[in-house]
Design goal:
Layout lengths: L2 H6 L12 H7 L2 H41 L16 E9 L2 E9 L1 E7 L9 E6 L14 E3 L2 E4 L6 E6 L2 E6 L5 H8 L2 E5 L1 E4 L2 E2 L11 E6 L2 E7 L5 H11 L3 E5 L6 E4 L5 E3 L12 E7 L1
Antiparallel strand pairs: 1-2, 2-13, 3-17, 4-15, 4-17, 5-6, 5-9, 7-8, 7-9, 10-11, 10-14, 12-13, 12-14, 15-16
């Protein structure tokens, strides 16, 4: 038996090198090996590129999916009831140790008012401070659009409210296309602390006791719910969840400016009248149709 043949036959490889490996190597042209090496190199590069592309596509799809998952479905409210006049319905309840007053507007036009407000305007059925004002420079906190004109940018607060075509919506989201839509279509938009997100309480850090106010989606309507006793933010939000509120964002509370008008024209104040002359002061308003 040929010694080279016996030494270099490779049964595990699935083929025999006729005449022995040493004979093949000795008589094979160099360019064959160069070609084999080049083909192997090209195959390796192709595999690496293909894996990278597939990984990139997967990451892009994950981002798109995540974006779609976090985009809220906005429900727009106008609380229209042809059998009723334009008015604010007032009811009271208590959840645990939180006393609540529920102010539900009917047949009204929601507005985001910028600047001082005329308290003698009898068409205004409800008004309360909306976005916060910075104490150091008097500017609006968070993204703010008034009738198509942006006045402030930023994402310091995840709660939002938007007003378009006499309808209002609210929710909680890091990013909302409603800000850009407001600038393009003449709408209004502001941000505030979130309170309730899809039926779940949103925790907040402040631990002081104060009178609380929130714009709420409740019982298929938009309303404002206030606490008539001083409570923690988280206790207030928990009470809203137990009441059945779907979504809610805080409004400026404490004893700051706000009021509502009864059917007989009498005014009930929620806080003291705003005395400073700040052009950035702003109100959420419900105006009679």
């Amino acid at each position: 038996m040929n010694e080279n043949k016996e030494m270099f036959d490779n049964e595990e490889s699935g083929f025999d090198i006729i005449g022995g490996y040493s004979d093949y190597k000795r008589h094979s042209p160099w360019w064959i090996w160069a070609t084999i090496a080049a083909v192997v190199f090209i195959v390796i590069i192709f595999i690496v590129v293909r894996v990278s592309v597939n990984r990139g596509i997967s990451e892009v799809n994950a981002v798109v999916y995540s974006s779609e998952e976090t985009t809220p479905t906005n429900v727009w409210f106008n609380n229209i009831d042809a059998s009723l006049p334009s008015f604010i319905d007032v009811s009271e309840t208590a959840i645990d140790s939180v006393d609540l007053k529920i102010l539900t507007p009917y047949n009204v036009i929601p507005e985001l008012h910028l600047g001082k407000i005329d308290t003698s305007d009898t068409d205004i059925l409800f008004a309360a401070l909306a976005a916060d004002i910075r104490r150091d420079n008097g500017k609006i906190v968070g993204a703010f659009v008034h009738e198509g004109e942006p006045h402030s940018w930023g994402l310091s607060k995840r709660g939002y409210c938007a007003i378009f075509d006499d309808a209002i919506t609210l929710g909680v989201a890091d990013n909302s296309p409603l800000f850009e839509q407001a600038t393009e279509q003449g709408g209004s938009f502001f941000r505030q602390y979130p309170s309730v997100d899809n039926g779940k309480m949103v925790p907040n850090n402040p631990e002081n006791l104060s009178f609380r106010r929130a714009l709420c989606a409740y019982d298929g309507k938009v309303c404002v719910i206030v606490s008539t006793n001083r409570v923690l933010m988280n206790d207030f939000s928990t009470a809203l969840v137990k009441l059945g509120v779907k979504n809610a964002i805080f409004l400026v509370g404490s004893t700051e400016d706000g009021w509502y008008r009864a059917e007989d024209g009498s005014v009930t104040r929620l806080g003291k009248k705003y005395a400073k002359n700040n052009p950035n002061i702003n109100y959420l308003v419900f105006r009679a149709q």
